[in-house]
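[Automated response] Your request has been received and processed.

Submitted sequence:
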Amino acid sequence: ERAVQLITKTTQFNLNGERRTAEEGDRVLSQGGRLFVGALEDRHGSHGEVLACVLEPGGRVSAWVMSCRVLQRGVEYAFAGWLGGAHGDGVPLRLASSPPASTAPMGQFLRQLGLAEHEDRDAKGAGSPEVVARPAQLRAGGQAHAPWVRVEVAA
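Generated structure:
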């Protein structure tokens, strides 16, 4: 499946660099998580499935990757807007980011949306970098894409 291929091979536009197997993805989905796959069609034609995102129960985005061949075309902004609208205004999304993302295209994109990375620590002091995104921030960022970009998302 293309989503698994994107998650295991994408390096440039990758939320955290984690590689997931199909079995790990199936486990998240069986626990109530969702997998979103985005396809791009623009003035250059159809590019097929170019984006994958895993939303775990409770609003944690554990994977968000996009093919490097469509960087700079606005897909990330269009999807951010869609995700912000689909999630609703209740609970903020938590994006499981990691230090490498801060220097890669994904990190630049998150900063352009006005999202800052922070360290989320538990009671034992263990933590992982996360970016907290209010759905309204994602919807506002989604307005930055070019009008000819159409992203269809399959859930």
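Summary generated for your ticket: The beta strands are 13-14, 34-42, 45-56, 60-66, 93-95, 117-121, 127-133, 150-154. The longest strand covers residues 45-56.
If you did not submit this request, please reply to this message.
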